[in-house]
Design a protein that fits this description.
The chain is an alpha/beta fold and 235 residues long. 37% of the residues lie in helices and 27% in strands. It contains eight helices and ten strands. It has a six-stranded mixed sheet with strand order 6-7-8-3-9-10, sandwiched between helices. The protein has a four-stranded antiparallel sheet with strand order 2-1-4-5. Helix 7 crosses helix 8.
């Protein structure tokens, strides 16, 4: 499994949001991109998820062109972004069943029930999403992302707005999916949690993506110091 992005740029009008970004994600690694709000992280992850077309660049997902043949690769991707990609008036079960039918998943009802149990939503299976708390919604989105057993997970700010228990759940699930061989990309501004779950680290500042270090090469303290210095330098 491999995702490879080469020279990805995105412009809105004359403004460059992402600038010639290069990135690879391999099976069994957790790549973490740190960056402040407005750095271009969400735009970049939407491009990798084939939800947004880049202005220029190439995207290869397991040997398939993710820009021109995006319909062929979407089943390989599990995505969590702030746009929930779900229907708020439907229940968690109804949402999963709907998306599962679109993907042609076998034993669908059993799969939906199993996933909702795994993420701790068994008591809320038939409740509409619009009553869910932030943590419950994040748990649902994890189930939604894993429904079709993708090989690549793209998680935009997965810890944002969560309480301690929900953050711990997300950490454990990331570790579990890495052990299952998935390639995982996370964007965050939280260096503590990012260092805890990640295996390789990058910074995105003002649309520029910069490779920093493998986990064994840098401590959490040094990562935080470099991140803060990098933000100050570009302020």
């Amino acid at each position: 499994m491999r995702l490879s992005a080469s020279q990805i740029s995105k412009h809105f009008g004359h403004r460059a949001i992402v600038k010639n970004a290069n990135l690879t994600i391999n099976s069994g690694e957790v790549v973490v991109i740190f960056g402040p709000n407005g750095a271009g992280k969400t735009t970049f992850i939407k491009i990798l998820a084939t939800l947004l077309r880049p202005t220029s660049g190439e995207l290869d997902i397991e040997g398939i062109d993710g820009i021109t043949d995006y319909a062929k690769v979407r089943h390989k991707l599990g995505v969590i972004i702030h746009d929930h990609l779900a229907y708020p008036t439907l229940s968690a079960f109804e949402n999963l069943k709907f998306f599962g039918q679109m993907s042609g998943i076998e034993y669908l009802e059993t799969r939906c029930e199993s996933l909702l149990n795994e993420v701790g939503l068994q008591r809320f299976v038939h409740e509409p999403l619009h009553i869910f708390s932030r943590g419950m919604t994040q748990r649902f989105m994890i189930a939604r992302a894993l429904l079709h057993n993708p090989s690549i997970l793209l998680l935009d700010e997965p810890f944002s707005g969560l309480d301690a228990a929900a953050k711990q759940f997300v950490q454990k699930r990331i570790a579990q999916e890495r052990e299952n061989g998935k390639g995982i990309l996370i964007t965050t501004h939280n260096t503590e949690l990012g260092h805890l779950v990640g295996t390789r680290f990058l910074f995105m500042i003002n649309g520029d993506l910069e490779e920093i270090a493998e986990k064994e090469e840098i401590s959490e303290e040094d990562l935080l110091q470099r991140y803060e210095e990098r933000i100050i330098d570009t302020a």
